[in-house]
Design goal:
single chain, mainly alpha, 54% helix
C-alpha cells in the first residue's frame, strides 16, 4: 500500500498538483536536487481544487472497493471487462492485424518487380549471345531520326 501511495504522489507531482508529504530536497540527491515548484492551494481556483479533491476521493473509494483497480470503472466487474477489451483491441487487433496488414502491402516502389525484370533480361541476352550491358538502350538501326534540315 505504501508503494501505491508513492506512485500516486509521483503522478500527482507530474500533473502539477502538490502531493501530501512531498518535500523539496527529499530525493536521493538530498538538498542538491531541484525543488518542484507548485502553487500553494490558495492560489488555485477554488473550483479546480474542489474538482481535484472529488477526483481523488473517487479514486480512493474505487481502490478501497477494488484493490485490483485498473482505472476504467468503479465497479470491479465492469473494470476488469473494460480492461480486457481495451487490451484485446489495443494489442491484438492494432498490433497483430496492423503488422500483418503492413507485411502484406504491395511492393513499394516496385523494387522486386524491377529485379525480376532485370534478371529476365540478363537471361534473355545471355541466351541470344549479346553482351549483358550495351551503351545503346535502343538499337540504333531501328531509330527513325529527323532530317538534318
Amino acid at each position: 500500500m505504501a508503494a501505491l501511495g508513492r506512485c500516486a504522489r509521483s503522478l500527482l507531482l507530474l500533473r502539477g498538483s502538490p502531493a501530501r508529504g512531498a518535500r523539496a530536497g527529499s530525493g536521493p540527491g538530498g538538498g542538491a536536487a531541484a525543488a518542484v515548484v507548485t502553487p500553494p492551494p490558495a492560489a488555485r481556483a477554488p473550483r479546480q481544487q474542489q474538482h481535484e479533491e472529488e477526483e481523488e476521493g473517487d479514486m480512493v473509494a474505487a481502490l478501497r472497493k477494488n484493490p485490483d483497480y485498473h482505472g476504467f470503472d468503479a465497479d470491479p466487474v465492469v473494470d476488469v471487462w473494460n480492461m480486457r477489451l481495451a487490451f484485446f483491441f489495443g494489442i491484438s487487433l492494432c498490433i497483430v492485424v496492423g503488422s500483418t496488414f503492413v507485411h502484406y502491402l504491395p511492393d513499394h516502389g516496385m523494387r522486386k518487380w524491377a529485379r525480376r525484370e532485370a534478371e529476365q533480361m540478363v537471361k534473355e541476352r545471355e541466351r541470344l549471345g549479346l553482351p549483358i550491358l550495351d551503351s545503346n538502350y535502343f538499337d540504333p538501326s531501328k531509330l527513325v531520326l529527323p532530317d538534318e534540315e
